[in-house]
Design goal:
Layout (H helix, E strand, L loop, with lengths): L4 E2 L5 H5 L8 H11 L20 H5 L1 E2 L3
Parallel strand pairs: 1-2
Amino acid sequence: MDEPIDLNTADQETLDAIDELQGHGHEIVRYRDERGGFSDLRQLDEVPGLTGKVTDSARARLKLGS
């Protein structure tokens, strides 16, 4: 398994490479920039277009950097 992707530093293209997030990288980066970053992976449900769509397998491919 690949190393988890840091949700707080990954660029749009890297986030779009995760199947469940594909096409939403821009919204994720914009949400992160507007709010100063993610403190919990569950906040992905607050990103426009992702509510209820992010699976546990997608979250397993992500991490929150320090």
